[in-house]
Amino acid sequence: MNLSRLSAAPAAAGLALALVLLTGGSAGAADPGKAPGGNFDLSVWQLQEPVGSPGSPTTISSSRLQGSNGYQDAYFYTDTRDGAMTFWAPEKGVTTPNSNYARSELREMNRDGSAANWSLGGSHRMNATLRVVSVTKNVCVGQIHLGTGGSSTKPLVELYYHSNGDIVLGTENSPSGGQTTRTVGHVSIGKTWTYTIAVSGGNTIDLTVNGSTTHYGIPSSFNPYKQYFKAGSYNQSSSDSTTNGARVAFYGLTVQHG
Questions:
Q1: Are the beta carbons of 50 and 103 closer than 8 angstroms?
Q2: Which of 11, 33, 80, 217 is the most buried (most CB within 10 A)?
Q3: From CA 138, how far away is CA 142, in angstroms rounded?
Q4: H or E segment at 222?
Q5: How confident is the model at residue 28 (pLDDT cuts 50, 70, 90)?
Q6: What is the radius of gyration, based on Cα positions, of the chain?
Q7: Is 140 within 8 Å of 251 (Cβ atoms)?
Q8: How far apart are CA 81 and CA 12, in angstroms?
Q9: Predicted local confidence at residue 9, as pLDDT
Q10: Rounded distance, CA 68 to CA 36, Å?
């Protein structure tokens, strides 16, 4: 099954879409009784949560996430109704030093436990099937983030979902900052949709949303940098509220490199 070719569907169709869950394309319906690590291959992910000490959010290692009895809590858990891997990021939460926004988000890792850090050359692809359950204003649900190669801590790519249903791509203009945004789709809140964020040829971002693909050039200023994928709920609004925020449910998440 090609996740990038699945069309938007009602939330009730989430079970039908929750088929491709493991890296490599293994099929099997999500089990609502298992932790996310029992339904998804989390051996290539580390979790960051909106708790911890100021400027230093708690991270959960891949080894703790894996398996049917793996880690879950109020910010990262299996929805017991449909087996979705669910991320909750309130408006008030612990943030990284370079952000004002809290997140419950996976960061790509290598299977040996080291941090993923790949070059732009080759083929790199992240596929997701998801729905935004609730959002106050705007939530980032997928990223390509800069790794080593310089001092920048910017993302190369961010994919946002807005509360009005617009899906918006943000591409960084240079490692020093400045983001260009484009509306790339529209899905009503609570409806299931798909995306593929990919890099090809070392210089092109290939984005597919519900089967529609667009391409964007990567400025040469990013060439010294390596990259990694992120996915989850990176809330884009902040306040003193612990009840407002962004809740995002994933039915499929895979990463491939070639």
A1: yes
A2: 11
A3: 13
A4: none
A5: low
A6: 17
A7: no
A8: 11
A9: 35
A10: 7
For the stretch 128-154, what's the b/e string if a residue is b when 16 or more beta carbons lie within 10 angstroms of its beta carbon? Answer: bbbbbbebbbbbbbbbbbbbebeebeb
| Interval 121-162: pLDDT, tens | 999 999 999 999 999 999 999 999 999 999 999 999 999 999
Task: Please tell me what DSSP assigns to residue 14.
Answer: H
- Left if phi > 0, otherwise alpha if psi is -120 to 50, otherwise beta: which for 28? left
Closest CA to 40 of 53, 51, 26: 26
pLDDT > 90 in the chain, percent: 88
Q: Dump the DSSP string for 107-168.
A: EEB-TTSSBP-B-SSS-EEEEEEEEEEE-SSEEEEEEEEE-SSSS---EEEEEEEETTSEEE
Among candidate residues 102, 47, 134, the one with its CA nearest the CA of residue 237:
102
Q: How far is it, in rounded angstroms, from Cα 233 to Cα 52? A: 17
- Tokens found for residue 245: 């925020």
State the virtual CA torsion across 55, 237, 166, 5 in degrees, nearest 10: 30
| DSSP-derived secondary structure letter, 9 | B
The structure tokens listed for 99 are 């952000």
- Tell me how far CA of residue 50 lies from CA of 27, 56, 232, 246, in angstroms: 31, 9, 12, 12
| 3-class secondary-structure state, position 220 | helix
Nearest to 93 by CA among 44, 55, 146: 55
CA distance 157 to 199: 10
